[in-house]
Model the fold of this input.
Amino acid sequence: MATSTPTFKVILCGEYGVGKSSIFRRFIDNTFTLETGPKSTVGLDHAVTEFNASGTQIRVELWDTAGIERFATLSSSYFQSASAAILCYSTTDRQSFNLVSQHILDIIMHSSTARIFLCGNKIDLAVLQGEQITESDVQDFQIQCDTVLSGTYEISCKTGEGVKEMFADIAMVLARNQKYKFDRSLMMPNIQPQENDECQKSGKCCS
Ligand SMILES: Nc1nc2c(ncn2[C@@H]2O[C@H](COP(=O)(O)OP(=O)(O)O)[C@@H](O)[C@H]2O)c(=O)[nH]1
Ligand SMILES: [Mg+2]
Done:
């Protein structure tokens, strides 16, 4: 694995039980378990996978909360230098969707340059139980959030539907940022990063 391959830290956020560890498990080895809580924990707090996004090779380092959110608030180191956050809710749990805006505030407060991707999980259950969060709920929320969200997805960790596509799309957005930063540095090689330039320090771009 080439060490020059740019690495992006991506964190999983959202309420307990929405399926963050299940997304993490799909990311690691594309498996799924109906176990919950500590039993569903993979035993790692982060894992790395390489993506080829339209010819640009990048590494995504995905971080899971390991269930801490059930008992305590996440530490600021969890958010530190994150390039992106996958903010999850369950499509069958309205409360988890209602709390998304609170999580957005947390992410922005701790990691002002992280891109936020909204992910509705458990669409397989929505088919069986009737959808709690509809497409128009998500659209209304997107309008309220204006430019805060970089993407929205609906997935099922159980069936795997939409999971690979979501990661490929997030990798594409991150790779595009990287390419933009690289092109800009070629055009303006003499411009040095400012002391307080978060984007430059963390290797991210806020375009
Ligand atoms: N039916 C269904 N259950 C899911 C899905 N994703 C996760 N689960 C289940 O939801 C529960 C909580 O998932 P988990 O990944 O531990 O959530 P976390 O607390 O956010 O990490 C577990 O029992 C999972 O098996 C899904 O897409 N469909
Ligand atoms: Mg978990």
